Amino acid sequence: MSEALPDGVVTLPLPVCIALCRELPRAADLDAAMRRVESVRQALLGDGLLTVNHVQPPAEGGANDTIELQRIWSSRPGDYPVAGRKTKTLTDWTRQLLLRGEVFVGEGPAVLAQVFDDHRRIQSMGLQAIVNVPLLRQDGRCFATFNVLGARTHWRAEECAQIELLAALARPCVALHDARLRAEALAA
After folding, report:
1. pLDDT at residue 179 greater than cutoff 50
2. Which of 73, 82, 127, 170 has minimal CB crowding within 10 Å?
3. CATH class of this structure's domain 47-187
């Protein structure tokens, strides 16, 4: 049975649609694609932060209950550099986003403090809400996360849908990068 879709309309300006449809397929690499996605994110949602994290899940059958994240793209590399790593334990957030592959919407300083170790840094940048979108392989496993933080304390449903759409459009470029990372790991 499919999940019921919410009522409402989500729009993207025509120039944004044209630019994304024409430029993303021609992006030379992840950085070029994400720069385009970030310019659209800024136009739609204003000031904020966009990062993409590669997910290294716990080994199957192992006793390890941690998940490794590595940042592979950042709109603010001075604050959140590419190649930054985080180790996450199994929490409600990691189970929802990384294991079940469900979008996480976190709003307000209290939620950020509950979920993220770096919540003080996030808040010092004026950011108060996040939408984490899992990027999934065909088998349903999360291989990356598309993370948008904003200055607002509350996301409108339309904004969440726009973020999910941008994540879906970025997914092929991130998937290619993921495939390269996995090939390099096998070769090592």
Report:
1. yes
2. 82
3. alpha beta
